[in-house]
Amino acid sequence: MHEMDQLSTAWFWIVGAIKVLGVFTVVMLAVAYMTLAERRVSAFIQDRLGPNRVGPFGLLQPIADGIKNIIKEETMPGTSAKLYFVLGPALAIMPAVVTFAVIPFAAPLPTPIGRVDMIVADVPIGILYILALSSLAVYGIVLAGWASNNKYAFLGGLRASAQMISYEVALGLSVIAVLLLAGNVTLTEMVAQQQQMKLWFVLPLSLAFIFFVISALAETNRLPFDMPEAESELVTGYHTEYSAMKFSMFFIAEYSHVLTASALMATLFFGGWDIPFWTGDDMFWHEGRLVRGFDDAGAAIPATPSLLITLLTLVSFSAKTAFFVFLYIWIRWTLPRFRYDQVMHLGWKVLLPAALGYIVLIAGAMLVLDQLGVPFGRLYGLVLTGISGATTIAFLFFVDRDRVIGGAHGNRAVARRRAASRVGGSERRAVSG
Amino acid sequence: MAISVKVMRRPEPGRTSYMRATLKGLSLTFKHLLKVDKVTLQYPEDQPELHPRWRGTHRMEVHADGRPKCVACGLCPTVCPANCIRLVGGEDDQGNRYPIVYEIDEFRCIFCGMCQEVCPVEAIHVGRHFENAEYTRDRFVYDLDRLMEQDHPTTLLWDPSDSRSE
């Protein structure tokens, strides 16, 4: 049976092509339904009903929107740079769609031709591929903003470049903590490590998770950080001049990013397709064989893949991803937009040093644990959980209440405090009362 | 009720926890998400309840024998601030005045309801009605027959002695 574990080269190509088609279709469908989910959730949050006319519960709305967008007239501003204007949406959508390729979405599936990994491309550079390609997304936006020859679009593009570059740093640094703990950059390996640790990385790396969520929100230009679009300031920012399918492509790109970021959160911090409290689904490749883990003597225990496990893990992964997509939407309809300087302040002065410090802390803690000879497992994770938990609480306490980031009232509060200390205590009480 | 100004008592900025505020906001939006009672009116199925003093498109009251109640006195075109009523009056053998032409341009109309208020014989009324869509603009000039055909409820005019329509 073990001879059948890996696919032959010919089958590898055929299965690969099927997976590419399948995942692309599913991602596009998911993106379409995320637009519906966004509209419905936003409506429900605002005590409305949202689109519920096209099909049952409005389920055909995304299809109607798609048809409308294809039929609509394509406008091309007379003063735009034509080539780049068309290139913009194409460049925006491409990286957004391809990043999903390295995310494993279920346990390997046993088939008569071998065991099929449920991932489009298990490339050895894994997360680096995602970081590299997701940063390409900014080119599409900047190009669109510049080529539109419109001041609002241009400002949107500028903001997008500044913001995405700033938060890429924090995003990358928060991922480094995960890489340290997993000891690998491939996402399949990260899932396996989380299974072997019997603890999802969100606990031992809680602060990295918080950094990742914040940076991912900023990276995908979603609402507390939607500076590039900022309706109230920039019309709609970089896609002001776009219409019909070209506009739709920016939309698809944004939602693909959200989907990928949600899937990444699930994979990096919530065990990917792992089903909690069950070791039956644990499996990873070890010396050409699919194993569940190692017994005390260090011998590999063969894994037992089955169709059922693959389906269950797929459900698990989808549920986790859907939760984060919902979290994105939920946050969008709760929090107001940051001011631009606050976004930059948070990115460079808070997240960057904090993430750097956290890497040092985690690396140090891991070094100490390794020196003490603590085996990689639940105890290892729990010690890190304690350290990270304390750091997270300290960080949140430190950042909160105007200690680091102030709102629009920040300077006013300082001025008031100064004035109060000059006049004396009684005046101060009068001000605050 | 006396006019009052609501004074917002906000805590000092430095004492406000952003984390708590964020979590509070998230829980508030989540509560609304789960709220069953939505404000949306599913329009074509559910009709809105129009106020008794809602002023919509006009209708002309008719006698039992089908003649319009209008006596062509000319008060409504005179009082109409938008000048949207065209009236050409005539007189029959018994000396009863009646409208030969009575047209209201509903596009020009500002729905002030003064025509109904001024009418001595309670012939012209504004109605509690709002579904007026047509395919062409000329369909919005309602002639006498069209006005007589309308069967929607008429508006209850404001009564100074019963200012709240109770």
What is the second-level CATH architecture of one domain in chain B?
2-Layer Sandwich
Q: Give the uncertain stretches of chain B in residue-range form.
A: none
Under CATH, the topology of one domain in chain B can be stated as: Alpha-Beta Plaits
> What does the radius of gyration of chain B come to?
25 Å
Major β-sheet profile of chain B: 3 strands, antiparallel
Could you give a quick summary of the protein structure above?
Chain A is mainly alpha-helical and 433 residues long. Chain A contains 14 helices and five strands. Chain A has one domain (2-379).
Could you walk me through the main structural features you see in this protein, from its secondary elements to its overall organization?
The complex is a heterodimer of chains A (433) and B (166). Helix content of chain A is 64%, strand content 5%. Chain A is mainly alpha-helical and 433 residues long. In chain A, a hairpin with a 2-residue loop joins strand 1 (106-111) and strand 2 (114-118). The radius of gyration of chain A is 24 Å and the shape is globular. The relative contact order of chain A is 0.12. By secondary structure, chain B is of the alpha+beta class. Chain B has a domain at 58-149: Alpha-Beta Plaits (2-Layer Sandwich), CATH 3.30.70. Chain B has helices at residues 18-34, 75-79, 114-118, 144-149; strands at 58-60, 85-91, 97-105, 124-126, 141-142. Chain B has a 3-stranded antiparallel β-sheet with strand order 2-3-5. In chain B, strands 1-4 form a two-stranded antiparallel sheet. In chain B, a hairpin with a 5-residue loop joins strand 2 and strand 3 (97-105). The interface between A and B is medium-sized, with 27 and 22 residues.
